[in-house]
Write a structure and sequence with these properties.
16 helices; two-stranded parallel sheet; 19 strands; extended; alpha/beta
Protein backbone atom coordinates (compact mmCIF):
# COMPACT_ATOMS: atom_id res chain seq x y z
CA UNK A 1 0.00 0.00 0.00
CA UNK A 2 2.80 2.42 0.93
CA UNK A 3 4.77 1.64 -2.22
CA UNK A 4 1.70 2.12 -4.37
CA UNK A 5 1.18 5.54 -2.81
CA UNK A 6 4.80 6.50 -3.48
CA UNK A 7 4.54 5.26 -7.05
CA UNK A 8 1.58 7.59 -7.64
CA UNK A 9 3.70 10.63 -6.80
CA UNK A 10 4.93 10.98 -10.39
CA UNK A 11 3.42 14.40 -10.74
CA UNK A 12 4.88 15.78 -7.50
CA UNK A 13 7.98 17.91 -7.15
CA UNK A 14 11.34 16.23 -6.45
CA UNK A 15 11.49 17.66 -2.92
CA UNK A 16 8.18 15.95 -2.02
CA UNK A 17 9.51 12.68 -3.41
CA UNK A 18 12.64 12.92 -1.24
CA UNK A 19 10.69 13.50 1.95
CA UNK A 20 8.28 10.78 0.92
CA UNK A 21 11.20 8.35 0.84
CA UNK A 22 12.43 9.45 4.26
CA UNK A 23 8.98 8.79 5.75
CA UNK A 24 8.69 5.41 4.06
CA UNK A 25 9.58 3.42 7.18
CA UNK A 26 7.19 5.35 9.43
CA UNK A 27 4.36 4.87 6.92
CA UNK A 28 5.05 1.14 6.92
CA UNK A 29 4.83 1.03 10.70
CA UNK A 30 1.55 2.96 10.66
CA UNK A 31 -0.06 0.59 8.11
CA UNK A 32 1.19 -2.47 10.00
CA UNK A 33 -0.34 -1.11 13.20
CA UNK A 34 -3.72 -0.65 11.50
CA UNK A 35 -3.60 -4.18 10.09
CA UNK A 36 -2.85 -5.56 13.55
CA UNK A 37 -5.83 -3.70 15.02
CA UNK A 38 -8.12 -5.13 12.33
CA UNK A 39 -6.77 -8.63 12.98
CA UNK A 40 -7.53 -8.33 16.68
CA UNK A 41 -11.11 -7.24 15.92
CA UNK A 42 -11.59 -10.24 13.62
CA UNK A 43 -10.28 -12.58 16.34
CA UNK A 44 -12.76 -11.07 18.79
CA UNK A 45 -15.61 -11.76 16.36
CA UNK A 46 -14.51 -15.36 15.86
CA UNK A 47 -14.27 -15.88 19.63
CA UNK A 48 -17.71 -14.32 20.05
CA UNK A 49 -19.20 -16.68 17.47
CA UNK A 50 -17.70 -19.72 19.24
CA UNK A 51 -19.06 -18.52 22.59
CA UNK A 52 -22.48 -17.92 21.08
CA UNK A 53 -22.63 -21.43 19.60
CA UNK A 54 -21.60 -22.92 22.93
CA UNK A 55 -24.26 -21.03 24.83
CA UNK A 56 -26.95 -22.12 22.42
CA UNK A 57 -26.84 -25.55 24.10
CA UNK A 58 -27.75 -24.00 27.44
CA UNK A 59 -31.25 -23.12 28.68
CA UNK A 60 -33.70 -21.01 26.67
CA UNK A 61 -33.15 -17.89 28.77
CA UNK A 62 -29.41 -17.87 28.13
CA UNK A 63 -29.88 -18.59 24.45
CA UNK A 64 -32.50 -15.85 24.14
CA UNK A 65 -30.13 -13.28 25.56
CA UNK A 66 -27.38 -14.26 23.15
CA UNK A 67 -29.70 -14.33 20.13
CA UNK A 68 -30.81 -10.82 20.94
CA UNK A 69 -27.24 -9.63 20.51
CA UNK A 70 -26.02 -9.14 16.98
CA UNK A 71 -22.41 -9.58 15.85
CA UNK A 72 -20.49 -6.33 16.04
CA UNK A 73 -20.02 -6.31 12.30
CA UNK A 74 -23.82 -5.93 11.89
CA UNK A 75 -23.97 -3.00 14.28
CA UNK A 76 -21.02 -1.06 12.85
CA UNK A 77 -21.61 2.04 10.71
CA UNK A 78 -25.31 2.27 11.59
CA UNK A 79 -25.76 6.01 11.16
CA UNK A 80 -28.63 8.23 10.14
CA UNK A 81 -31.34 6.20 11.88
CA UNK A 82 -31.36 7.91 15.28
CA UNK A 83 -34.49 9.97 14.65
CA UNK A 84 -36.38 7.08 13.05
CA UNK A 85 -35.29 4.72 15.86
CA UNK A 86 -36.51 7.10 18.55
CA UNK A 87 -39.85 7.53 16.77
CA UNK A 88 -40.39 3.77 16.46
CA UNK A 89 -39.44 3.16 20.11
CA UNK A 90 -41.94 5.83 21.17
CA UNK A 91 -44.63 4.06 19.16
CA UNK A 92 -43.72 0.65 20.57
CA UNK A 93 -43.64 1.76 24.20
CA UNK A 94 -46.57 4.16 24.07
CA UNK A 95 -49.66 3.22 26.04
CA UNK A 96 -52.50 1.89 23.89
CA UNK A 97 -55.57 -0.24 24.47
CA UNK A 98 -55.48 -2.05 21.13
CA UNK A 99 -52.98 -4.22 19.31
CA UNK A 100 -50.89 -2.23 16.85
CA UNK A 101 -48.74 -3.25 13.90
CA UNK A 102 -45.90 -0.94 12.89
CA UNK A 103 -44.60 -1.34 9.33
CA UNK A 104 -41.22 -0.27 7.96
CA UNK A 105 -41.52 -0.22 4.18
CA UNK A 106 -39.46 0.82 1.19
CA UNK A 107 -37.45 -0.53 -1.73
CA UNK A 108 -34.51 -2.90 -1.22
CA UNK A 109 -31.25 -1.52 0.16
CA UNK A 110 -32.72 1.38 2.13
CA UNK A 111 -31.81 -0.17 5.49
CA UNK A 112 -35.18 -1.44 6.71
CA UNK A 113 -33.65 -4.52 8.38
CA UNK A 114 -30.85 -2.44 9.88
CA UNK A 115 -33.38 -0.04 11.39
CA UNK A 116 -35.49 -2.91 12.71
CA UNK A 117 -32.37 -4.49 14.26
CA UNK A 118 -31.49 -1.24 15.96
CA UNK A 119 -34.95 -0.95 17.50
CA UNK A 120 -35.08 -4.64 18.43
CA UNK A 121 -31.80 -4.43 20.34
CA UNK A 122 -32.43 -1.13 22.08
CA UNK A 123 -32.30 -1.37 25.94
CA UNK A 124 -35.59 0.52 26.27
CA UNK A 125 -37.36 -2.09 24.16
CA UNK A 126 -35.70 -4.94 26.09
CA UNK A 127 -36.90 -3.44 29.37
CA UNK A 128 -40.43 -2.78 28.14
CA UNK A 129 -41.07 -6.20 26.54
CA UNK A 130 -40.38 -9.41 28.45
CA UNK A 131 -40.89 -11.46 25.29
CA UNK A 132 -39.23 -10.67 21.96
CA UNK A 133 -38.91 -12.73 18.79
CA UNK A 134 -37.12 -12.07 15.51
CA UNK A 135 -38.74 -13.90 12.59
CA UNK A 136 -38.82 -13.71 8.81
CA UNK A 137 -42.10 -13.88 6.86
CA UNK A 138 -41.85 -14.18 3.08
CA UNK A 139 -44.66 -13.59 0.62
CA UNK A 140 -45.17 -17.38 0.53
CA UNK A 141 -45.26 -18.85 4.03
CA UNK A 142 -46.65 -21.81 5.98
CA UNK A 143 -48.28 -21.24 9.35
CA UNK A 144 -46.60 -24.18 11.05
CA UNK A 145 -43.11 -22.90 10.18
CA UNK A 146 -44.16 -19.41 11.18
CA UNK A 147 -45.38 -20.62 14.58
CA UNK A 148 -42.17 -22.58 15.11
CA UNK A 149 -40.08 -19.50 14.31
CA UNK A 150 -41.99 -17.51 16.92
CA UNK A 151 -41.67 -20.29 19.50
CA UNK A 152 -37.91 -20.49 18.93
CA UNK A 153 -37.71 -16.83 19.84
CA UNK A 154 -39.61 -17.14 23.09
CA UNK A 155 -39.07 -20.65 24.46
CA UNK A 156 -37.12 -23.91 24.14
CA UNK A 157 -38.44 -25.80 21.10
CA UNK A 158 -38.69 -29.54 21.75
CA UNK A 159 -38.80 -32.41 19.30
CA UNK A 160 -42.50 -32.83 19.98
CA UNK A 161 -43.17 -29.26 18.95
CA UNK A 162 -41.39 -29.79 15.65
CA UNK A 163 -43.88 -32.55 14.82
CA UNK A 164 -47.00 -30.59 15.84
CA UNK A 165 -49.62 -29.39 13.39
CA UNK A 166 -50.89 -25.83 13.00
CA UNK A 167 -53.63 -26.05 15.63
CA UNK A 168 -51.36 -27.62 18.25
CA UNK A 169 -48.62 -25.06 17.57
CA UNK A 170 -51.18 -22.27 17.88
CA UNK A 171 -52.21 -23.55 21.32
CA UNK A 172 -48.55 -23.81 22.32
CA UNK A 173 -47.65 -18.58 20.29
CA UNK A 174 -50.75 -18.67 23.41
CA UNK A 175 -48.43 -19.54 26.34
CA UNK A 176 -46.10 -16.64 25.69
CA UNK A 177 -47.66 -14.63 22.87
CA UNK A 178 -51.21 -13.33 22.30
CA UNK A 179 -52.91 -15.13 19.44
CA UNK A 180 -53.69 -11.87 17.67
CA UNK A 181 -50.02 -11.29 16.94
CA UNK A 182 -49.83 -14.23 14.55
CA UNK A 183 -53.00 -13.32 12.76
CA UNK A 184 -51.66 -9.89 11.84
CA UNK A 185 -48.12 -10.74 10.79
CA UNK A 186 -48.84 -12.01 7.25
CA UNK A 187 -51.45 -9.34 6.44
CA UNK A 188 -50.10 -6.24 8.18
CA UNK A 189 -48.53 -4.86 5.00
CA UNK A 190 -51.79 -5.20 3.13
CA UNK A 191 -53.55 -3.11 5.78
CA UNK A 192 -51.30 -0.14 5.08
CA UNK A 193 -53.19 3.13 4.62
CA UNK A 194 -50.41 5.68 4.02
CA UNK A 195 -47.54 5.15 1.55
CA UNK A 196 -45.32 8.24 1.64
CA UNK A 197 -41.73 7.68 0.51
CA UNK A 198 -40.66 11.02 -0.89
CA UNK A 199 -37.94 12.23 -1.42
CA UNK A 200 -36.64 8.68 -2.13
CA UNK A 201 -36.60 8.16 -5.91
CA UNK A 202 -37.45 4.79 -7.50
CA UNK A 203 -35.77 3.64 -10.72
CA UNK A 204 -39.20 2.37 -11.80
CA UNK A 205 -42.85 2.57 -10.84
CA UNK A 206 -43.28 0.93 -7.38
CA UNK A 207 -45.66 -1.79 -8.56
CA UNK A 208 -46.00 -3.32 -5.08
CA UNK A 209 -48.47 -0.62 -4.10
CA UNK A 210 -51.01 -1.92 -6.63
CA UNK A 211 -52.06 -4.64 -4.17
CA UNK A 212 -52.47 -2.38 -1.14
CA UNK A 213 -56.18 -1.81 -1.52
CA UNK A 214 -56.56 -0.09 1.87
CA UNK A 215 -54.30 2.81 0.91
CA UNK A 216 -55.84 6.26 1.24
CA UNK A 217 -52.67 8.33 0.61
CA UNK A 218 -49.81 7.62 -1.83
CA UNK A 219 -46.78 9.85 -2.50
CA UNK A 220 -43.68 8.67 -4.38
CA UNK A 221 -40.97 9.81 -6.80
CA UNK A 222 -39.08 8.02 -9.54
CA UNK A 223 -38.29 7.58 -13.21
CA UNK A 224 -41.48 6.33 -14.83
CA UNK A 225 -43.69 7.35 -17.74
CA UNK A 226 -47.01 5.72 -16.85
CA UNK A 227 -49.30 5.17 -13.90
CA UNK A 228 -50.51 1.66 -14.74
CA UNK A 229 -54.09 0.50 -15.04
CA UNK A 230 -53.71 -1.74 -11.98
CA UNK A 231 -53.70 1.38 -9.78
CA UNK A 232 -57.46 1.50 -10.42
CA UNK A 233 -57.73 -1.29 -7.83
CA UNK A 234 -56.95 1.20 -5.04
CA UNK A 235 -60.61 2.00 -4.53
CA UNK A 236 -59.93 3.60 -1.10
CA UNK A 237 -57.34 6.04 -2.44
CA UNK A 238 -58.02 9.71 -1.70
CA UNK A 239 -54.67 11.35 -2.53
CA UNK A 240 -52.15 10.37 -5.24
CA UNK A 241 -48.92 12.37 -5.56
CA UNK A 242 -46.51 11.13 -8.25
CA UNK A 243 -43.33 12.95 -9.25
CA UNK A 244 -41.15 11.77 -12.12
CA UNK A 245 -38.01 12.74 -14.01
CA UNK A 246 -39.72 11.87 -17.31
CA UNK A 247 -41.15 14.58 -19.52
CA UNK A 248 -44.77 13.39 -19.32
CA UNK A 249 -46.92 10.82 -17.54
CA UNK A 250 -49.59 8.70 -19.18
CA UNK A 251 -52.26 7.89 -16.60
CA UNK A 252 -53.55 4.52 -17.72
CA UNK A 253 -55.33 4.01 -14.40
CA UNK A 254 -59.07 4.51 -14.72
CA UNK A 255 -59.58 7.33 -12.22
CA UNK A 256 -63.33 7.12 -12.86
CA UNK A 257 -63.35 3.84 -10.94
CA UNK A 258 -61.47 5.40 -8.02
CA UNK A 259 -64.57 7.02 -6.59
CA UNK A 260 -62.88 8.27 -3.39
CA UNK A 261 -59.99 10.01 -5.19
CA UNK A 262 -59.89 13.68 -4.22
CA UNK A 263 -56.42 14.91 -5.15
CA UNK A 264 -54.26 13.87 -8.11
CA UNK A 265 -50.95 15.73 -8.31
CA UNK A 266 -48.08 15.16 -10.75
CA UNK A 267 -45.03 17.37 -11.27
CA UNK A 268 -45.02 16.79 -15.04
CA UNK A 269 -47.85 17.02 -17.59
CA UNK A 270 -50.17 14.03 -17.23
CA UNK A 271 -52.41 12.70 -19.96
CA UNK A 272 -55.89 11.78 -18.75
CA UNK A 273 -58.25 9.69 -20.85
CA UNK A 274 -61.98 9.98 -21.43
CA UNK A 275 -64.40 7.63 -19.75
CA UNK A 276 -64.34 4.12 -21.14
CA UNK A 277 -68.02 3.64 -20.35
CA UNK A 278 -69.99 6.68 -21.46
CA UNK A 279 -72.78 5.96 -18.97
CA UNK A 280 -70.48 6.22 -15.96
CA UNK A 281 -71.56 8.79 -13.38
CA UNK A 282 -69.66 12.01 -12.69
CA UNK A 283 -66.69 11.90 -10.35
CA UNK A 284 -68.14 13.66 -7.32
CA UNK A 285 -65.02 13.43 -5.13
CA UNK A 286 -62.25 14.78 -7.38
CA UNK A 287 -61.17 18.25 -6.23
CA UNK A 288 -57.55 18.63 -7.47
CA UNK A 289 -55.97 17.91 -10.85
CA UNK A 290 -52.42 19.18 -11.15
CA UNK A 291 -50.80 18.98 -13.61
CA UNK A 292 -52.55 17.78 -16.81
CA UNK A 293 -51.84 18.28 -20.50
CA UNK A 294 -54.00 20.65 -22.57
CA UNK A 295 -55.14 17.59 -24.55
CA UNK A 296 -56.67 16.22 -21.32
CA UNK A 297 -59.10 19.13 -21.06
CA UNK A 298 -61.85 17.42 -23.02
CA UNK A 299 -65.55 17.45 -22.31
CA UNK A 300 -65.26 13.78 -21.34
CA UNK A 301 -62.79 14.67 -18.57
CA UNK A 302 -63.68 18.14 -17.30
CA UNK A 303 -67.37 17.60 -17.98
CA UNK A 304 -67.35 14.71 -15.49
CA UNK A 305 -65.51 16.51 -12.65
CA UNK A 306 -68.10 19.08 -11.52
CA UNK A 307 -66.61 19.55 -8.05
CA UNK A 308 -63.04 20.29 -9.19
CA UNK A 309 -61.57 23.15 -7.14
CA UNK A 310 -57.96 23.26 -8.34
CA UNK A 311 -56.69 22.67 -11.89
CA UNK A 312 -53.20 22.96 -13.32
CA UNK A 313 -52.58 22.74 -17.09
CA UNK A 314 -49.06 22.42 -18.50
CA UNK A 315 -48.02 21.99 -22.11
CA UNK A 316 -48.59 23.76 -25.42
CA UNK A 317 -51.36 26.07 -24.24
CA UNK A 318 -52.17 27.21 -27.78
CA UNK A 319 -53.85 23.80 -28.09
CA UNK A 320 -56.48 25.01 -25.61
CA UNK A 321 -57.49 27.86 -27.90
CA UNK A 322 -57.58 26.06 -31.24
CA UNK A 323 -61.04 26.42 -32.76
CA UNK A 324 -62.50 23.12 -33.91
CA UNK A 325 -66.18 23.86 -33.55
CA UNK A 326 -65.31 25.18 -30.13
CA UNK A 327 -62.06 25.17 -28.16
CA UNK A 328 -60.88 22.93 -25.33
CA UNK A 329 -60.85 26.03 -23.14
CA UNK A 330 -64.64 26.13 -23.42
CA UNK A 331 -64.79 23.02 -21.23
CA UNK A 332 -63.44 25.04 -18.29
CA UNK A 333 -66.67 27.03 -18.22
CA UNK A 334 -68.51 24.07 -16.70
CA UNK A 335 -66.20 24.01 -13.65
CA UNK A 336 -68.40 26.10 -11.39
CA UNK A 337 -66.57 25.04 -8.21
CA UNK A 338 -63.08 25.83 -9.56
CA UNK A 339 -61.26 28.51 -7.53
CA UNK A 340 -57.60 27.91 -8.56
CA UNK A 341 -56.30 27.70 -12.14
CA UNK A 342 -52.64 27.47 -13.24
CA UNK A 343 -51.64 27.78 -16.90
CA UNK A 344 -48.01 26.93 -17.78
CA UNK A 345 -46.89 27.15 -21.41
CA UNK A 346 -44.36 24.30 -21.73
CA UNK A 347 -43.15 23.51 -25.28
CA UNK A 348 -39.77 21.97 -24.42
CA UNK A 349 -37.31 21.75 -26.13
CA UNK A 350 -38.54 24.77 -28.09
CA UNK A 351 -38.47 28.23 -26.43
CA UNK A 352 -41.94 29.28 -25.19
CA UNK A 353 -41.58 32.67 -26.91
CA UNK A 354 -42.02 30.90 -30.27
CA UNK A 355 -45.39 29.48 -29.14
CA UNK A 356 -46.79 32.47 -27.28
CA UNK A 357 -50.51 32.92 -26.81
CA UNK A 358 -52.00 35.41 -29.22
CA UNK A 359 -55.02 36.19 -27.09
CA UNK A 360 -57.10 35.15 -24.10
CA UNK A 361 -60.64 33.78 -24.34
CA UNK A 362 -63.45 36.17 -23.33
CA UNK A 363 -63.90 36.50 -19.57
CA UNK A 364 -67.20 34.58 -19.71
CA UNK A 365 -65.26 31.49 -20.86
CA UNK A 366 -63.33 31.36 -17.58
CA UNK A 367 -64.71 29.40 -14.61
CA UNK A 368 -67.24 31.74 -12.98
CA UNK A 369 -65.95 31.49 -9.38
CA UNK A 370 -62.22 31.72 -10.08
CA UNK A 371 -60.26 33.33 -7.23
CA UNK A 372 -56.62 32.41 -7.93
CA UNK A 373 -55.02 32.51 -11.37
CA UNK A 374 -51.42 31.83 -12.46
CA UNK A 375 -49.78 32.28 -15.86
CA UNK A 376 -46.21 31.35 -16.89
CA UNK A 377 -44.30 31.59 -20.21
CA UNK A 378 -47.40 32.64 -22.15
CA UNK A 379 -45.86 35.89 -23.61
CA UNK A 380 -49.24 37.62 -23.84
CA UNK A 381 -49.53 41.32 -24.66
CA UNK A 382 -50.41 43.59 -21.72
CA UNK A 383 -53.58 44.71 -23.51
CA UNK A 384 -54.98 41.24 -22.79
CA UNK A 385 -54.90 41.98 -19.06
CA UNK A 386 -58.25 43.72 -19.43
CA UNK A 387 -59.85 40.26 -19.85
CA UNK A 388 -58.49 39.17 -16.47
CA UNK A 389 -59.46 42.46 -14.88
CA UNK A 390 -63.09 41.68 -15.68
CA UNK A 391 -63.11 38.38 -13.74
CA UNK A 392 -65.56 39.29 -10.97
CA UNK A 393 -64.14 37.17 -8.11
CA UNK A 394 -60.40 37.15 -8.88
CA UNK A 395 -58.40 37.71 -5.66
CA UNK A 396 -54.87 36.52 -6.51
CA UNK A 397 -53.01 36.95 -9.81
CA UNK A 398 -49.53 35.51 -10.38
CA UNK A 399 -47.71 36.41 -13.60
CA UNK A 400 -44.53 34.30 -13.71
CA UNK A 401 -41.65 34.09 -16.19
CA UNK A 402 -42.77 36.28 -19.09
CA UNK A 403 -46.45 35.62 -18.65
CA UNK A 404 -47.01 39.06 -20.20
CA UNK A 405 -44.55 41.09 -22.26
CA UNK A 406 -44.31 44.61 -23.55
CA UNK A 407 -43.11 48.04 -22.46
CA UNK A 408 -46.34 49.47 -21.01
CA UNK A 409 -49.27 48.21 -18.93
CA UNK A 410 -52.05 50.76 -18.58
CA UNK A 411 -54.91 49.70 -16.36
CA UNK A 412 -58.54 50.35 -17.26
CA UNK A 413 -61.18 51.75 -14.92
CA UNK A 414 -63.31 49.09 -13.30
CA UNK A 415 -60.68 46.31 -13.55
CA UNK A 416 -59.73 43.99 -10.67
CA UNK A 417 -62.45 44.95 -8.16
CA UNK A 418 -61.62 42.07 -5.77
CA UNK A 419 -57.86 41.61 -6.41
CA UNK A 420 -55.93 41.26 -3.13
CA UNK A 421 -52.52 39.98 -4.29
CA UNK A 422 -50.50 40.74 -7.44
CA UNK A 423 -47.23 39.01 -8.31
CA UNK A 424 -45.13 39.75 -11.41
CA UNK A 425 -41.98 37.70 -12.04
CA UNK A 426 -39.43 38.19 -14.82
CA UNK A 427 -40.86 40.61 -17.34
CA UNK A 428 -39.63 43.36 -19.67
CA UNK A 429 -42.27 45.79 -18.38
CA UNK A 430 -41.00 49.38 -18.12
CA UNK A 431 -44.04 51.55 -17.40
CA UNK A 432 -46.88 50.60 -15.06
CA UNK A 433 -49.67 53.14 -15.33
CA UNK A 434 -52.24 52.76 -12.56
CA UNK A 435 -54.32 54.68 -10.03
CA UNK A 436 -55.53 53.71 -6.58
CA UNK A 437 -59.04 53.23 -8.01
CA UNK A 438 -57.75 50.41 -10.21
CA UNK A 439 -56.88 48.27 -7.19
CA UNK A 440 -59.55 49.03 -4.54
CA UNK A 441 -58.89 45.78 -2.61
CA UNK A 442 -55.14 45.29 -3.16
CA UNK A 443 -53.17 44.09 -0.11
CA UNK A 444 -49.91 42.61 -1.44
CA UNK A 445 -47.58 43.45 -4.34
CA UNK A 446 -44.61 41.23 -5.24
CA UNK A 447 -42.24 42.20 -8.08
CA UNK A 448 -39.39 39.78 -8.84
CA UNK A 449 -36.74 40.14 -11.56
CA UNK A 450 -38.57 43.11 -13.07
CA UNK A 451 -35.24 44.74 -13.86
CA UNK A 452 -36.60 47.23 -16.43
CA UNK A 453 -39.55 48.53 -14.40
CA UNK A 454 -39.04 52.28 -13.94
CA UNK A 455 -41.23 52.86 -10.91
CA UNK A 456 -44.21 51.81 -8.84
CA UNK A 457 -46.93 54.46 -9.35
CA UNK A 458 -47.02 56.78 -6.37
CA UNK A 459 -50.82 56.74 -6.52
CA UNK A 460 -50.73 53.16 -5.20
CA UNK A 461 -49.73 54.71 -1.89
CA UNK A 462 -53.34 55.83 -1.63
CA UNK A 463 -54.65 52.26 -1.65
CA UNK A 464 -55.88 52.02 1.92
CA UNK A 465 -55.89 48.22 1.97
CA UNK A 466 -52.21 47.88 0.93
CA UNK A 467 -50.17 45.90 3.50
CA UNK A 468 -46.93 44.73 1.84
CA UNK A 469 -44.66 45.61 -1.07
CA UNK A 470 -41.88 43.14 -1.89
CA UNK A 471 -39.21 43.88 -4.48
CA UNK A 472 -36.62 41.26 -5.53
CA UNK A 473 -33.96 42.23 -8.07
CA UNK A 474 -35.74 45.25 -9.55
CA UNK A 475 -34.32 48.55 -10.78
CA UNK A 476 -32.96 51.10 -8.32
CA UNK A 477 -35.56 53.67 -9.44
CA UNK A 478 -38.37 51.19 -8.70
CA UNK A 479 -36.93 50.58 -5.24
CA UNK A 480 -36.74 54.34 -4.60
CA UNK A 481 -40.38 54.79 -5.63
CA UNK A 482 -41.40 52.03 -3.20
CA UNK A 483 -39.56 53.82 -0.37
CA UNK A 484 -41.45 57.03 -1.18
CA UNK A 485 -44.75 55.16 -0.94
CA UNK A 486 -43.67 53.86 2.45
CA UNK A 487 -42.94 57.43 3.57
CA UNK A 488 -46.38 58.52 2.33
CA UNK A 489 -47.97 55.92 4.60
CA UNK A 490 -46.00 56.55 7.77
CA UNK A 491 -49.14 56.20 9.86
CA UNK A 492 -50.10 52.89 8.24
CA UNK A 493 -48.60 49.44 8.83
CA UNK A 494 -47.28 49.06 5.29
CA UNK A 495 -44.33 46.64 5.19
CA UNK A 496 -41.60 47.19 2.61
CA UNK A 497 -39.18 44.37 1.71
CA UNK A 498 -36.40 45.13 -0.79
CA UNK A 499 -33.71 42.65 -1.90
CA UNK A 500 -30.87 43.34 -2.17
CA UNK A 501 -31.23 46.04 0.43
CA UNK A 502 -28.78 48.41 -1.32
CA UNK A 503 -30.97 48.84 -4.40
Amino acid sequence: MVEATSYNQKGKKWLQKVFGGINHASKLREVAKNIQTIKEEVDKMNNYQMLREALQHRGPAGRKRMERRLPDVEKDNVVGFDEATAMLIDQLTGKTEDLQVISIIGMGGLGKTTLANKVYNDPIVSHEFSTLAWIYVSSTYSKDKLFLSILKGVTQVTGDMSNMGEDELAEEDQVNLPTAHVGYIPDEFKLLRVYHIQPISFPRFPSEIEQLVHLTYVAFSGDFKTIPAAMSNLWNLQTLIAETSSRTIDIKADIWKMLKLRHLHTNKPSQLHDLVAKKTNDHDSLQTLTTVTPQSCTEGVLGRTPYLKKLGIRGKLATLLEEKGGSLFDNLTTLEQLVTLKLLNDVFPEPPSEFKLQRLPPCNKFPPNLKRLTFADTFLEWEQMHVLGMLPKLEELKLKDNAFTGVRWSLVDGDFPKLKALQIWKTDLVYLVAKADHFPSLQHIVLKDCTKLWEIPSSLGDVKTLQTIKLHQTSRTAADSARKIKQQQQESKLKLDIFPSDL
